[in-house]
Amino acid sequence: MPSPPPDWVKALKPAEPHGSQLLQQERAQSNVAVDRLGELLHTKEALDRQQHILSILQAEEVFDKSQNHTLGRTERIQRSLAKGKRLQQLSVQHNWSQEEYHAANELLAEPTPYGLHATMFLVTLREQGTPEQHKLFLERAQNYQILGCYAQTELGHGSNVRGLETTATWNPEDKTFTINSPTLTASKWWIGSLGRTANHAVVMAQLYIQGKNYGPHPFVVQIRDLETHQPLENVYVGDIGPKFGYNTMDNGFLLFNRVKIPHVNMLARFSRIDKETNQYMRPASPSLIYGTLTWVRSNIVLQSGGVLARGVTIATRYCAVRQQFQDRDATGNVGENQVLNYKMVQIRLLPLLASMYALHFTGRGMMRLYQENQNRMKAAAQAAQEKRGAGPEELRAGADLLADLHATSCGLKALASTTAGEGLEVCRRACGGHGYSSYSGIGPWYSDYLPTLTWEGDNYMLTQQVARYLLKSARAVLAGKGTNNDTSQILQAYLARRDMGASFDILGNDADIVAAFAWRTAHLTFEALKHRDVEKRSWNSLLVDFWRLSTAHSQYLVVKNFYEAVTSPEVTGALDAETAGVLHKLFRLYALHTLEREASEFFSSSAVTVRQIGLTQNNAVMKLLDEIRPHAVRLVDSWQIPDWQLDSSLGKYDGDVYPDLFRRASQNPVNDLVFDPYPWNAAVLKNGPKSKL
Amino acid sequence: MPSPPPDWVKALKPAEPHGSQLLQQERAQSNVAVDRLGELLHTKEALDRQQHILSILQAEEVFDKSQNHTLGRTERIQRSLAKGKRLQQLSVQHNWSQEEYHAANELLAEPTPYGLHATMFLVTLREQGTPEQHKLFLERAQNYQILGCYAQTELGHGSNVRGLETTATWNPEDKTFTINSPTLTASKWWIGSLGRTANHAVVMAQLYIQGKNYGPHPFVVQIRDLETHQPLENVYVGDIGPKFGYNTMDNGFLLFNRVKIPHVNMLARFSRIDKETNQYMRPASPSLIYGTLTWVRSNIVLQSGGVLARGVTIATRYCAVRQQFQDRDATGNVGENQVLNYKMVQIRLLPLLASMYALHFTGRGMMRLYQENQNRMKAAAQAAQEKRGAGPEELRAGADLLADLHATSCGLKALASTTAGEGLEVCRRACGGHGYSSYSGIGPWYSDYLPTLTWEGDNYMLTQQVARYLLKSARAVLAGKGTNNDTSQILQAYLARRDMGASFDILGNDADIVAAFAWRTAHLTFEALKHRDVEKRSWNSLLVDFWRLSTAHSQYLVVKNFYEAVTSPEVTGALDAETAGVLHKLFRLYALHTLEREASEFFSSSAVTVRQIGLTQNNAVMKLLDEIRPHAVRLVDSWQIPDWQLDSSLGKYDGDVYPDLFRRASQNPVNDLVFDPYPWNAAVLKNGPKSKL
């Protein structure tokens, strides 16, 4: 520990007004109901749970965060494993629920080497294993008697799962599979928890039966000894090295040299090989797997609001504490202005504040639709099984909704994670120079979040799926075969009014804002359809149009979900009129700011006029910034992210920014070092290094 | 070192086609003259120098880069100091010129703790010191007998230099200054080379003489003992801790408790205190200081092209090596497509490829203008001194051009560093999952570059200076007092044609593209002027408009400079027609892609029609992507960045991407660790942790 500051330093205070005074002032000038809003966002139960778990974690030294940013990777990953172990011990000791264990990980806010074991390995075993396999693998995995990972991506293949090179060849003679890596690029790569931790892996490999390829399937393969933890023979496994973030996780590589595994190690809930006939048995219900991906992506949408909220909370509080320059039009010496008062700061931060709410409500909407549909499909499947009549039609309706949900989740995953990831960087820069310090708490969080833009479908790749779905829907609508879902409806509404034009009243009528977003999506859809079906343009030449289309559609969905939320009885009933009114303004800011940024598409689709855009930009958006500004600090307070989770000097709840930055800086271990700063020895130094050495 | 791969792993090759084959193919399909173009960009002399210095650095183990990303901060900064020392020794040993020393640092591509000593400390002493002070400080500093830094920014003040809190009070009785930090927020902060290295600092402090404040001035203050390197009494100094990047630099803090320094320690070239009368003597020529900042910013513009080029080189080569999915319209099994063939990748990378050239030529243009003006002003000043007549008018013309250059450099610094910084992140993501690995070489470089968006004027703050200048120019033009510089000319041209409209032929005539950018700038300038002068809107309410205006103006300047470069005899004369033709296409891509992205401003200023934008988007830009695509690899090769500098598996010149990633991964030190992966001891493990512990 570096030497403590002398007394004359300890006696120094920051210049007045102090951050604590400024934040008190901020909180006094708004009546936004922080607690009620927090409960609406997270439920009272979840907030209580967070508080309870927080008190447990803070009492344990192993979870200390103070050295996170200075240690090298080998030390960090070892500490992180210790944290993961302790979390697991606490989980058993306190009999934590899934929600409690999840809350603990959220508060820790650092991936541990158990991360992929606790999620993908367990989930895959549970969802794709048979009861026999649950007994053999899942139970031991749940007890941390075996540790696993999910090995899909390879050195040469990420997005294109069908291109994976690892093979699993069925050996009819001894009823085994041979797992093999035929090339270097077949090496599994990026696999979380694999590098140093896992002793088992679910390996996705091309299944070959008698020379025929049946595509990628999941196999459980033991890779390390359960006692020595050394790699088994013909397995080459290790950590893939340092990354832009996620350095507390042992993402790994894995190669096999003709490793044999028994028949039972192919996860067989959906497809399997009949041991007697050596026949491949078809997947039972591919739509269920489809459903899982939809769930995973919807979850990313839901989380993106909270991810962004960390950055916005930090930046908003700090911009209320930081003062810089006097207002240029002020007369006399009025002191420096809070940075948050500058319009150039507001235009960067407040739309992100609106976005975090917008994404949260959109994610909730998605999850609700998903659950409803799952329930409906289960009921229909059961009805069909019991031959109670109307099953098939309901199943079809369910499948239609699921296809819509699938496309929706692809586009929204891309938009939401891009918004959150890029938004965090905007927040970091809005903090000025201090945003660059690790003590801002934004940089490390941003670095750890960025993979979300690539995994579960690269954000650019995903937009093709949205476009494909919209084109298909448009073809159906044109053929008079549109269904009853929202996508069909907006396409039909556009066709019905296309010739007479839109004339939406975006500045006077909020429902018209939603309609304008729908109109733009429909317009771009029929444009893209014309390029593809009439002009016969190549798929590749349309990728940029498809990306624009997907973005437009997803923005429409966010605007629609946000509008429905702020006008719903669930929200307006739970809040006083003032708080509900501020939320409504956030909706308008999100929608109009987005509209303004994408103005050229709104023009060219004739959804709005050039004059409307001018008014939006110069009047409506600027007025909303003025109106929301006084509530900014309370709006981030409502998210109720504990200081311990934020781990930020700039974003401290009490506003005591500068003393905290100073305390952390003076304690940082680089201050233990004493440099010999000279490039020369004493003799050279004395005479000056004029002669060549 | 982790255990080496077994023989069966060593025998593995990547899947065909190998990266080396694909890059050979790329280079074979284009005739772009890599060497000629490289010489045009950098000069043959500079390329030879780079090669020469590279061979020296590569031979020294101290410069090994392989552990850069895994070590903790304390170890990294110590190693970096060792590198800095060795560079200094080599510099003396080989009698390096400034250019050679600079080239060595560029190749090392890592800030060392000597960084701010070697630049800002020496520059400030040289430019702001008197001959007596040069003898006292500069000579020893140049010989590394004393080590210094430039201490301006404080914990509570970055952008607003006038708000600095550190004081320097003149004591007439003993002819000394007292340097003092009255508050905690007065602590110097972010000061490079201060934390552990410097024993001297140039401290910017508010000068007080007999109770009157004369604003910030520079003072040389010794802060550490020259032998023990311990801080002197009443000085509290240290490192500010870990950062998003720049972790090999000891950015520091510094507090003074009434430290006395002699009269000679106030740098006195421009202003000073008369020791006898205790009178403050006014600055001699503020415009010279003005000039230095302009030079620094122009340099950032010039370097931004090269900064971006590193990312574009890596991403372009890797996207030519990486293959993913078959083309959707392809029939039969044609194999996977190079990622670079996808339009969604091209639209992200190729405009950045164009940008790196555009920024480079713009920076060169700026530097040339700056030099010309410096020479002219020096001549005029000399003429004035010798009373040879026309001095004053020439000085006024020079000052007018300098004001233009100053505003231009502010806007371009903001645009160029934002383009480079954000462009690097686009390049990183275009590399897919592997972009996230530190071995991509992009992430660490991006992290180290980001401060450039904040220092030397925050990119958002700077835009106000551009707007202020444009408003002033517009007022002069309206009053019939416009000068002859380019800014006045474009404003005048707009006024002359405003009523009849623009009707630029942006798709047929390249000069018209430049004119359309000028038109948009002029339109936005007069709009902003109306808001401010006629509607009397507050400065704060116009900040967003000003930022848009500055961006528009700077984009115009880049388009103009790039156009002038690609049509200049200097370029066309040095290159064959094909290479020159490809450069010209890069100009068109940069300009039309920018125009398309900013479409709504081009519409609303009536610089172009909606129909023109549609054609630009659907035809012109897409066609340019097709035409430039075959030359992409040669266009990045031309930049001639050595592999050792790139430090990237993905961007290797030979395309041998996957074996290099694999080699680095298997050697990374995390693979030395053996985990005990279980959270329980053996007894619990055997029975399963079902009971509470």
TrEMBL record, chains A, B:
Residues 34-147 form the Acyl-coenzyme A oxidase N-terminal domain. It comes from the Eukaryota. Pathway: Lipid metabolism; peroxisomal fatty acid beta-oxidation. It catalyses: a 2,3-saturated acyl-CoA + O2 = a (2E)-enoyl-CoA + H2O2. GO terms for biological process: fatty acid beta-oxidation using acyl-CoA oxidase; lipid homeostasis. Its main location: other. Keywords: FAD, Fatty acid metabolism, Flavoprotein, Lipid metabolism, Oxidoreductase, Peroxisome. Belongs to the acyl-CoA oxidase family. This is Acyl-coenzyme A oxidase.
